[in-house]
Amino acid sequence: MSYIDLLAWVVENKNELIGCRIDNIYNLEKLDNVFIFKLHCKNSDKNLIIEPGVRINFTKYDIQKEIGNKAKSLRELIRDLVISDVQIIDKERILKIALNNGMKIIVELLPRGLLLVLDEQDKIKFSTEYKEFKDRVVKPGLPYVQPPKPNKVVVPKDILFALHLTESVNAEEEYEKLEKSIAEGKITPCIKKGINFMPIEFEGCEKGNSYNDVIDEYFLELTKQKEIQKITEKIEGEKKKLEKTIQQIEENIKEYEEKAEELRKIGKEIMEHYMEVENAIKNKEKKIKLEGKEIEIDPKLSVAKNASLYFDKAKEYAQKSKKAKETLEELKRKLNEIEIEIKKEEEGRKLSIRKKEWYEKYRWSFTTNGFLVIAGKDADQNESLVRKLLEDNDIFLHADIQGAAATIIKNPKNITEQDIYDAAVIAASYSKAWKLGLAAVDVFWVYGSQVSKSPPAGEYLPKGSFMIYGKKNYIKSVKLNLAIGFKINDSLEIVVGSENSVSAKVKNYVLISPGDELERTADRIVKILSEANSINAGKELKNEVLSILPGKSKIIKVVKETNDKQ
């Protein structure tokens, strides 16, 4: 990001950042210098990506993350603190994020930039790198010193191009006008995917909804490529070693075969010139010239035995060639396995990053005919669903047991009985019935207009509880069988629901019911579906599957069509 990019992002998002509490901090999996700050903000939770020397932006994408040493250190220092102010330092690519206890986060987007945490006296408490640079020293306890500022303003070439300017005197003036315009909020988010993005319109670009979205979209592919490169580095190293060994063995085989042929030829020549060789033996000669080539013979042995020596040596080289060929085949098989592994890793990583939809903070599913079903994960979410999302024409479902998810079918226009049953499976599965190990449970449904948070006079409704008025429609003995599959397009999405709804979307899936294991069942689901879809699964995938399981489970059915594309 350039200074203009940072300025545009801050102008657009400063108010979104101020007041946010730092809930947690992670590294991107395999990229320990890229951080995800999970923020609890006024209107919603947000994920902020900070990549020193590169970018800062909110992301809508679900990216696999881990807790590395740097993330742990940051957690200890700034977790639970609130962002009180955000400002750019000295018109440079340096952002200062002030915290409510007087500490500051410094994000340097300059080349070789750092992420630092400073105390109330601006002394360094944390840095992504500790080093003595040419113009400053970055060490714990020392005062923070900015990287040196260039002597003159350098207008980025892409800005010159966008403004149709040359590197002339007026370029700097126009750049200052652009800076002022951006600072006033005159931003036109524009992107040329895989090539460039700017807060102004430029040739061949597509306009975006926000500048943050444009930045997020642009860096999505770059992040995937970096992760793929990082995760395949070790495997690529093994591949190169193997290829070098294969090349050496192929050269050895050629050498062995040529030597064997040469020795066989000499043996034949000895027998074909029997009399000449015999005379040489009688004269105690150790060398003889045959077919214009001098060869060694043993005068103590007969002609036949001299020939046999060469034939035996030829057999030894032929045997070496045979063994080398067997080794070569084994190494080629291993190389093929490595190439398949690299491809799986690449595909798995490409699929690991995707945009999360608003409803994914709840339990969710789509019915056979595509109606959205959302259900609460706990009493708070049950309350939120009914108060904020349930409309009069929506369908509300609940398992007929104490302790169950409030479940809603959104916009159920022209809905079928199958769709309602699909939603009933979600309501039944995410209820206490699963934890009790029941095989089935009744589920009732009503329209949203029949659900109220207002109790009768003199009564109290605990959190997550509701009043239902009018007739309840019952679906008897809904089986606690939940289907799980991987839907793969440009990214990987876990689909869950009734067997009917999931089988309409994917070819490979498992069917689960209440059981005795949680971790092991999740491991088996990931293994089965990853193999069926020819991908390598990361640990985040297991965590996501675990979050979907209603409780201890067992697999009761596996459907795989591994040759079909999903």
UniProtKB/TrEMBL annotation:
Signal peptide: none annotated. Residues 228-348 form a coiled coil. One of its GO terms (molecular function) is tRNA binding. Residues 361-470 form the NFACT RNA-binding domain. Keywords: Coiled coil. GO terms for biological process: rescue of stalled ribosome. It holds the Pfam family NFACT_N. PANTHER family: NUCLEAR EXPORT MEDIATOR FACTOR NEMF (PTHR15239), RIBOSOME QUALITY CONTROL COMPLEX SUBUNIT NEMF (PTHR15239:SF6). This is DUF814 domain-containing protein. It comes from the Archaea. InterPro entries: NFACT_RNA-bd, RQC_Subunit_NEMF. GO terms for cellular component: RQC complex.
